[in-house]
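Sanity check

After download, print the first record. It should look like this:
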Amino acid sequence: MPLSMQVKLLRVLQNRTIERLGGTRTVPVNVRVIAGSKRDLKQMVADGKFREDLYYRLNVLPVALPPLRERREDIPALMDHFIERYFRRSGEDKPEIANAVRQAFMRYSWPGNVRELENACERIAQTCTCGTVRVGCVSAGILFRAGAQPSDPGMPLSGSLPAQPTAPIALDDRLRELESNLIAWALKVSNGNKSRAAELLQIKRSTLGDRIVRCGLGAQAPDLESQAGVGPQASGLETHATA
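Expected structure tokens:
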């Protein structure tokens, strides 16, 4: 906020009056101001970038809200809340959440605070189709950065999460989970059409068929062509043997 605007705001707070833009009459106001800033206002006062009198005028009842990375004990409850909200919005029950996912959320620094966490949970609700939220459902950016930023060793993690910041991760298992989730997503959005799902995943249809069997997703990929009766009889054509 420029210093010229700070003067006007201070005048409103002190005199409880305003003048409309282009007006000449003073209008009394009775308002309660809630102000917030992510900057260090005390330092800005010292640097001459924020008026000291306005600072003390606003700082009547200060409420310090630390960033999410400094109150990680709130992450599990927020995660459960947002996951349940967005799954129910889609008409689904809240799924189980794997411990590896909870651990990744606890390790991540969340520079976007609660809004970023909510966005991550909404993304999970839109892409997770396996009944359990696994690491394959989580954004790769969160997983990679979580691995580089271990949680505070002095803070106990909730539930049965391991407290070791260097807990091993089975890469092959994680890759299989990711592959399974992506295939399940493609089958879901294509209504079980394997050809369309293969196009979405940019692989051959035969390759998709093999991976569906390997991932145990056959129930999600019915043979639509067989159900539609594609063939000579379905099209009303008859074949006759010719002598």
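If your output differs, re-run the checksum step. Summary of this record's structure: The mean pLDDT is 79.
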